[in-house]
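One-letter codes give the sequence; the fold follows as C-alpha cells. Both lines appear below.
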Amino acid sequence: MLAHKLYNLPSFKKQYDALLTLSVCRVIPNLIWNIDESELLAEIDWNNILSIASALAYSKESEHLDAALRISQTAICDSSTNEVQKNAAGCVLLSMTNIPAVKLAVERGFISKNFIDLIPFTQKINNLRIDFEHTVLIRDELIKLNRFQKQVYNAYNDNSSVSVSAPTSAGKSYVLCNLLLEELEKPNSRIVYLVPTRALISQVESDIKNLITSHKLRDVNISTVPQNEFNENESCVLIFTQERLHWFMIENYDYKIDVVVVDEAQKINDGHRGILLQQKLEELICCHEDIRVFFPVHLL
C-alpha cells in the first residue's frame, strides 16, 4: 500500500520526528526547550512532507491519519510556510473531511476564505467528489458528514446492529441526531433511548426535544417514565435507564420497538446493572425481529 510505504520511508520518519517536536514545543506555552528551532525547520521539506500527507489522508490506518492531520495543522499554523503550502495543507484537511479544522483556520486568518479557488483544477474536482460522497439528504436538507460519520451512517443503514467506538470529539452525537431524525420521519416510529444514569435522562430529553423543535417534527411523544398508554398515531421516544426499561417491559411486553440506542454502551460491563442491561437488550431483540440496535461507546 502506498501510504504504508511512504509512512515508513526513513526520510519521512526523519522529517516527521522534527515536525512533531516543533509542533509540540509550540503548542505548550512557556516550555523551555534546548533545541534550535532553525535546526528542526532545516529537517523539514514542506513540499515533500505535504505531498506525503496528501497520500496518508486517504489511508484507513489511524497512525497515517494522525500524521496527515499533524502535518497539515502544523503547516497551516507555522510562519515558515508560504501561502501555497498552507493552501495545500487545507486541501489535506478537506481530503480527510475535517471541515471544522478548515473553518477554524479560515477564522484565524491562517488561510484565506477563497483558498479553494487557488488550488489546481484536478484538486477542486477531487474535493467536489469527496463532498458529494459524504453528503446525505435528511428531511429535504443536505447534511455534510465527515468520513467517520459517513461510515457510521452507512453501517447503520446496512445492518440491524451497529457498535461504534470512538472518542467524544469524533462526532458520534451529530450522526446519531441525524439518524434519529430519519427514524422519526417514518410513521409511528418507536425508539428506546437507554442512558446509564437517571441524571442523564433530563439532559437527553432536553436534547431530543430541541432536535424535534428545531426540525419542526410533529406527532412525536417523549416519555421518561414507564407507562402503558400510547397514541398509536404518534411516534415515540422512550428515554429510560435499564431499570425503567425493565418495568416498562413488564407492562408493555408486546409493545413494538423499532430502534434501541444504548448510550455509553461500555456500561454493559458494570456489575449488576450491566447484567440487567444485557438481559433487557436480549429480551428486546427476541421480541422484535426487525429491531435495530445502535451502540455508541465512548472512549477517553
Notes: The chain has a mean pLDDT of 85.
